[in-house]
Specification:
With 470 residues, the protein is of the alpha+beta class. It contains 14 helices and 18 strands.
């Protein structure tokens, strides 16, 4: 196996999305102490760092704004990222406490055309989510996590190379308990290679079994079983905002991340959607629910985000928004996108569906109408105007097998009958409504080369022009 570990060092801070200009840090309690676990760029420039005591940090930077860590948001974000990561592999696992997501990429390299191409693709798609990410690649889970936490981008492809290539890394980057780390620093060791040089049985006498077990997992000396993540059958993503917001633009930043996570989920399942529900939560008001429906199956994040933007622009929010909830309950197949080399009907259909979606989002569903079919043999009554929303059901088909023109005219009396071709089509209908018609339809070819669709009325025996072919 070959594992790619994605480490999100600023996850608690990026989830809260603080918009204040200045020093901001996320804190967590370790025992009786309140320490910094994430700092924004302004805080780091002011000399603050992760692991620093909050009281000391405030003394050093009085303008520092401290935010409490939200483990609930971190848990939801890591699960959403795991579902997003399944687009690259069926074997994905995570460690919520360490902000890690692992992707088994060994079986996917040929599909994604090699390690370099896959690495670039993962980086491109993770950047669209707006997260700061460090990456490590190694044959074991813990080795890849170690490389990611040390910001070592050079991959290790063979288990036999782990010991040599990990030896130069700082010993403080190991994931071991605090007492074991203090003991190693007390000895004076600074590099992992110094730890590897000690026989394992001697380490076992000085440290807990978990310590030697961790080293065995790190070097691939024993199996490291983990529970693989499996995305749920329906999609649900909730995101709390750092503070209630009034405008649309702050909401779009959060929505962009949520929609790109949804796109990864849909790619992982090789499916698409035609409807989603976005709920904007307000503290002192009922939620604002937005139902988005598309004309064709979709999973493109940019298209979905543009449609949501159009709807939000014409939606009056009753109060500031403090949370977003995105739900998708039904999925549809994306459809076959491969066609003839010189056939561009798929592209035309996609462009038409995109235009319809934008019009519905901007003007409202009822403002956009379409033509539909009616169950009537009379040509002038076989169509209607529909205001219903797009649907995935199969449209009505009249099962007409004879040739008919798209250009239908008001019946026009003709005296000079052109030559008729083909066999007639007889229509008798409308007796149940008092509008009885009995006609025999023919196709005629004029001297100029155009074709007419005309009929003879059975009651008057007169001829009428009813349609034209272009």
């Amino acid at each position: 196996m070959l594992w790619m570990c994605l480490y999100f060092p600023e996850l608690p801070l990026e989830l809260r999305e603080p918009r204040d200009i200045g020093c901001v840090a996320i804190t967590d309690r370790i025992g009786s102490r309140r320490v910094l676990i994430a700092c924004n760029e302004a805080s780091r420039e002011a000399g603050l760092h992760r692991g620093q005591d909050a009281t000391t940090a405030l003394a050093h930077c009085p303008t520092l704004r401290l935010l409490d860590r939200s483990r609930t948001q971190e848990h939801a974000a890591l699960h959403a990222l795991a579902g997003w990561a399944e687009q690259f592999s069926s074997k994905v696992c995570m460690d919520v406490d360490r902000w890690l997501v692992w992707i088994e990429i060994g079986a996917s390299l040929q599909y994604f055309q090699g390690l370099d191409a896959l690495t670039r693709l993962v980086s491109k798609r993770i950047n669209a989510l707006g997260y700061t990410t460090l990456r490590g690649i190694a044959p074991t889970l813990e080795a890849s996590a170690l490389l990611a936490r040390c910001a070592c981008s050079t991959p290790i492809l063979q288990v036999t190379r782990l010991r040599d290539q990990l030896s130069s890394l700082p010993i403080g980057s190991l994931t071991i308990d605090r007492h074991a780390m203090q003991a190693l620093h007390g000895i004076g060791w600074k590099r992992i290679g110094q730890l590897f040089a000690i026989p394992r049985d001697q380490l076992a006498r000085r440290f807990d079994p978990e310590f030697t077990q961790y080293l065995a997992h790190l070097l691939g000396e024993c199996a490291d079983p983990r529970k693989f993540y499996r995305a749920p059958a329906t999609y649900h993503r909730s995101l709390e905002l750092a503070a209630p917001v009034n405008g649309i633009e702050p909401l779009l930043f959060a929505l962009r991340r949520m929609v790109h996570e949804l796109q990864g989920y849909l790619r992982a399942r090789d499916t698409a959607l035609q409807s989603l529900r976005l709920s904007l939560q307000h503290e002192k008001s009922s939620p604002t629910v937005i139902e988005l429906r598309t004309s064709a199956p979709q999973r493109d994040a940019h298209h979905l985000l543009n449609l949501l933007r159009e709807i939000l622009d014409r939606t009056a929010l009753p109060a500031p928004t403090d949370a977003l909830i995105l739900d998708v309950d039904q999925f549809v197949t994306l459809g076959d996108t491969q066609g003839d080399l010189f056939d561009d009907h798929t592209t035309r259909d996609e462009s038409w569906a995109t235009l319809l979606d934008k019009l519905r989002a901007r003007l409202g569903t009822n403002a956009v109408m379409r033509l539909g079919l009616c169950n009537d043999h009379r040509p002038e009554k076989a169509w209607c105007v529909l205001k219903d929303e797009p649907t995935t059901s199969t449209p009505y088909s009249s099962h007409v097998t004879s040739e008919r023109p798209l250009w239908l005219l008001e019946p026009r009396l003709i005296d000079d009958l052109p030559p008729l071709i083909g066999s007639p089509e007889r229509i008798e209908a409308g007796w149940w409504s008092g509008d009885d018609v009995r006609r025999e339809y023919y196709i005629a070819q004029t001297r100029e080369g155009s074709r007419w669709w005309l009929y003879r009325d059975a009651a008057s025996h007169r001829w009428y022009l009813h349609g034209l072919w272009a």
